[in-house]
Amino acid sequence: MLSRAFEVHDSKNENFIGHLLLTINEKVEVSVTYKDFYLEINSYFYENLKAPSLKNFYASYRVSLINENDQNYANISYLNPPEGGDIILFDGMRGFRIGSLIMYIKIQWLKNLSADYKVKGIFFRPDGDPEIAKQFYKNFGVRIDGLPFKISNLCLHDSWKKNIFEIDLSKIDSIIQNLVNELNFINSKIKYLREMNFESNDKYNKINILNFWICRNFYADLSNSPISFDYAYLSKVDLETKTELLSKYYYEKIAINQILEDKKMEHQKQIKRWDFSHIPHRFLQAIINIFNMLLPYTILLVFLYLIYKYLF
After folding, report:
1. How many CA atoms lie within 13 A of 164 on its CB side?
2. Were both Cys, which of 3, 136, 176, 243 would link to 21 (CB 3.0–4.6 Å)?
């Protein structure tokens, strides 16, 4: 069994979508008259922190053991070589060229046969936009009228390389470790900014007439970060779990990077309110603070005065 993992982005390669894990199995079945060769691709698509979407894809071909002149066929989309089939992707995988990647792998496998080897055509049953489906098969040189064609007609169309990138599985542990380190680093920045912004806000709300003119420095140094992760855990889990972790951490990174940017913007506002040019604003804040401080006492005095007037 061969395993391959990929990082999937949208069709314009602008946004991360998820991770794709493919397990590729080849097997041979021998009967009295035929030898059948099978390629089975199991796909696990990890998207939006949900449970992985699972789908199976096939290719096959048959060789006669009795008569070399028998018309042998390959099948690009079905487990049983003599039968027809189709490649139908479920909704979670549409629009990201994952189908193109899987078809590319199947054609690579079939290209090991002779150029004149016959392939059964697809019986066209599009599950979605028929024009997109027609173009999909045309890109790979696959007939959609059910008629046979030759291996030489198949094309290794590699448009999937625009937005799907293979992960070196020998480095997946270090990729996860580096990603966790980065997440810890970003989280420490967010925590530090929250503390600095809270302190700045607290000081600002305590400004008075005596200290409003003082310029304070609340600049946050974001260069240091604690790191915490049980790296030994990775040696105990399988590739599916690692791929799921990788996708999970990627989505977390996207989310906390947005939080970090929000905290940075808030922090810049905090820094600005303490500079020299904002002394008039701080004076006004000092007046407001004095008013807010005296307001409860003023209300209490008015209340006592009204009681006094009522009683006496």
Report:
1. 22
2. 243
Residue type present at position 86:
D
Closest CA to 75 of 41, 35, 117, 114: 117
Rounded-to-integer distance, Cα 69 and Cα 306, Å: 114
Angle at the Cα of 185 (from 182 to 191), degrees rounded to 5?
140
Token digits of residue 216: 């304070």
CA distance 6 to 138: 25
Query: How, if at all, do strands 164-167 and 2-9 pair?
Result: antiparallel
Residue bearing tokens 């998820």: 18
User: Where in the chain does DSSP place strands (E)?
Assistant: 2-9, 16-30, 34-47, 53-64, 73-75, 118-120, 149-150, 164-167
Handedness of CA 261, 262, 265, 267 (dihedral sign): negative
Q: What is the pLDDT along the chain (312 residues), one digit of tens a residue?
A: 899 999 999 989 989 998 999 999 999 989 888 888 999 999 999 887 677 888 888 899 988 888 776 667 888 877 665 555 445 454 556 788 998 999 999 999 999 999 999 998 887 666 666 777 788 888 999 888 888 899 999 999 999 999 999 999 999 988 988 888 888 888 888 888 888 888 877 877 777 766 666 667 666 655 554 545 666 778 788 888 888 888 888 888 888 888 888 888 888 888 777 787 877 887 888 788 788 887 777 787 777 767 767 776
Distance of CA 234 to the CA centre of its chain: 20
Name the nearest CA neighbour of 3 among 28, 30, 24, 26.
24
Query: Which amino acid appears at position 273 of this protein?
Result: R
Give Cα 214 to chain centroid, integer Å.
47
Structural domains of the chain sorted by starting position, each given as residue range(s) with its CATH number in brackets? 1-165 (3.40.630), 167-277 (no CATH)
- β-pairing verdict for 34-47 and 16-30: antiparallel
Q: How far apart are CA 107 and CA 76, in angstroms?
A: 7
- What is the Cα gyration radius of the chain? 33
Task: Quote the pTM value.
Answer: 0.73
